[in-house]
Amino acid sequence: MMRQTLSRLLLICAALFLGAEAHAQVTSARIERAASEPQNWLVYGGAYTNQRYSTLSQINQGNVKNLEQQWVVQNQVPGAWESNPLVVDGIMYLTQRPNDVMAVDARTGKMFWLYRWTPDPAARVCCGANNRGVAILGDTLFVGTLDAHLIALDAKTGKPLWNTVVADVKSAYSITMAPLIVKDKILVGVGGAEFGIRGFIAAFDPKTGKEIWRFYTIPGPGDPGFESWKGDDWKTGGGSVWTMGSYDPTLNLVYFGVGNPGPDWNPSQRPGDNLYSDSVVALDPDTGKLNWHFQFTPNDGYDYDSTQVPVLADMDWNGKPAKVMMWANRNGFFYVLDRVTGKFLQGQPFVKVNWASGLDANGRPIQTPQPPGQPTYPGNQGGTNWYPPAYSPRTGLFYFSVWENYGSVFRREEAVYQPGRNFAGGGATGLAPAPGATTVGIGRRGPIDYWTSEVGSGATVAMDPHTGKRVWTFPQYDVADAGMMTTASDLLFTGGREGYFYAFDAKTGKLLWKTNLGGSIVNAPVTYAIDGRQYVSVISGNILSTFALRN
Amino acid sequence: MVRSSRLAGRLVFWMGMLCAGAPALAQDHQYSAEQIQAGYRLYTGQCQLCHGANGDGIASVNLARQQFHTVVTDDDIRKMITTGNTAGMPPFVLKPEELDALVAFVRSGLDQGGVPFRLGDAGRGKAIYDGKGGCAACHRVAGMGSRAAPDLTDVGFIRRPGQMLTSLTEPLKGTMPINRPVTIVTKDGRTIHGRRFNEDTFSVQLIDAQEKMLSIQKSDIRQYDVGMTSAMPSYQGKLDSDEMADLLAYLVSLKGQ
């Protein structure tokens, strides 16, 4: 009785507190301070730093074994579910293939509304009809579509407010990333570098959908970096932007990773460094002007998109406080950059690498192309890829999923550009132990692992950014494309293709809890709280599953 | 989808069997490495746009798995390419040797490696499977035979002819990684010899020598060896080239029940 009365009282208090907050708009100031309201998950990476670090600590190392599934949402659409949920004052907003948006009660999983957008049948994407989530500002949600529209929805009704055509679907432009809100602008990039697009990031007015500025990731005549292209190659130069960027309000800079050049696999068809493909670009969010860039893979022949999520942190570097950016790249190297200037601080390979023998003093790779028919490491899907990493300021460690001992044989061909058609310039075949044996690629092929760890395996890795060395590794039998989330109770939540959802001791890598959800975990978990109760949500296969401690 | 594709496969199989008896088709079908590779180049340029890199770009057609709407014989493939159809396949103007190359590439199961092979008579091949080859001592087809080695009921559907030929001549090279023999010693002292169905970070699912299905937690295992050998004997030299072509034709005809 006593307990009941007490909990009822607590509930009332919580309701009062929440009630006041539920009406608060998601202002840009609130997004800037997202880390200070850990009951919500207001932006893709939990905060503009993309650390995916939450100060919630109700679930801790002692009680994590008592996690219990509270509810699930089932996705009725086949294919990888790469959406990253947002949680705002008890409401979860997420997307499903191809471009549906839904609002869900984050306490029960019950749906308020479902918005459906059918992309133009001409839409082309290389690697799945993916969408990675929405952004919110005020009472408005923003979603990019496979046919390269940007749509604003009323967050309370799911009805569209405006619909802007960002780029031409007939030339295979698409949007799969979640938009990034910076102050009074919506920033979004386009995909399509396998189809000969010229990539860009653009900013839009949240009220009208009008474009405010555009930064081409492939420079044109007169732009800095144009000298890294020959002839007309830049016109089909690729440079997709398909993952979330980061923002540093103190420097007023946004950072985006840029994808592969076009044609994808034939570097001899586009001599030069091919800026700003496979680079990180630092832009002024007010104007779209380039402040600095750093290129990870010049003249890439391996599809080493640098579309990883930039992770920002302030830390001591060689005895001085530094503003850094950490980056585990698809090309197999882990980098630390000074995010004020773009200066290379250090870089080390984190998996087997043979396309480069190392990095020079400026972080430029010393390329060692393998003879035709010989395997290149890491293979086409990279040592890691787009799935978001995490960083804990408590442990000082950077967490990410890797593919170990995974190589591909690359094939180069002359590509001919036709608008909207494949412009890949060859292909890549995963190394297989027997002719015709199944290998690994984008997405898991089914519930049975025929390919075995002989074609590569996965791991969850904790990296010390100061040394570029692994502090701990949790090996997985199948490769892993799971994102990360870590908390102030030193828990690390992640998964893998096999369908296990894990909680680790973030310091030591000790496995504290696991459950088999039965489907690949291909994005990162999120955490939030309602009425003082902490929840953890993760997508596995075709379900979004939400956990909390047993009552 | 699976059902209908299996059905279609069966239909193709039986029609193929019927046609195989016809005098016009009695001769062997020989597909050279040069033809297959030339076919691959043509395919990449002319066919891939619609049929896809894996041959499954058109609904209910799977070129790699010999799953077609109307095509049965090699000549049917040639005719389809040169005349097209009303469903949207355009006609192509190609030289006879180019048509031969495309036929070879399709019949190879879109084998980019271009392993040459010859298909003989499936009926004679079945006799070799049951008799001289002794295949049923380890393998199983449609419920008949041992479960020690992989069940071949649908092997013609899931494997390319070139892969099956490699398995027959160089079993070690042709063994799919999941089929390697495993030996497990459990912490409670049991020794298990078997063949895996599936494996992940924490467990392995297998069938043991007594044909028992086991799901074992790795935490219960003391020693785990995946054999890099093959229990399958090589048929190189044991079967002559005609017998090999016949046996391969039989295996190719196994499309599932």
General description of the model:
- The complex is a heterodimer of chains A (about 550) and B (about 260).
- Chain A is mainly beta and about 550 residues long.
- Chain A has a single domain (about 1-120, about 125-550), classed as Quinoprotein alcohol dehydrogenase-like superfamily (Methanol Dehydrogenase, Chain A, 8 Propeller).
- Chain A is built from two helices and 37 strands.
- Chain A has helices at about 1-20, 30; strands at about 55, 65-75, 85-90, 90-95, 100-105, 110-115, 135, 140-145, 150-155, 160-165, 180, 185-190, 200-205, 210-215, 245-250, 255, 280-285, 290-295, 310-315, 320-330, 335-340, 345-350, 355-360, 365, 390, 395-405, 410, 425-430, 455-465, 470-475, 485, 490-495, 500-505, 510-515, 525-530, 535-540, 545-550.
- Chain B has helices spanning about 1-20, 35-50, 75-85, 95-105, 120-130, 155-160, 160-170, 170-175, 240-255; strands at about 30, 115-120, 140, 145, 180-185, 190-200, 205-210, 215, 220-225.
- Residues about 1-25 of chain B have low confidence and may be disordered.
- Chain B is an alpha+beta fold and about 260 residues long.
- In chain B, strand 5 and strand 6 form a beta hairpin.
- Chain B is elongated, with a radius of gyration of 20 Å.
- Chain B contains nine helices and nine strands.
- The longest helix of chain B has 19 residues, at about 1-20.
- A five-stranded antiparallel β-sheet of chain B has the order 8-7-6-5-9, with no helix packed on it. A two-stranded antiparallel sheet of chain B has the order 1-2.
- Among the domains of chain B are: about 30-115, Cytochrome c-like domain (Cytochrome Bc1 Complex, Chain D, domain 2); about 175-225, SH3 type barrels, CATH 2.30.30.100.
- At the A-B interface, loops of A face helix 7 and strand 6 of B.
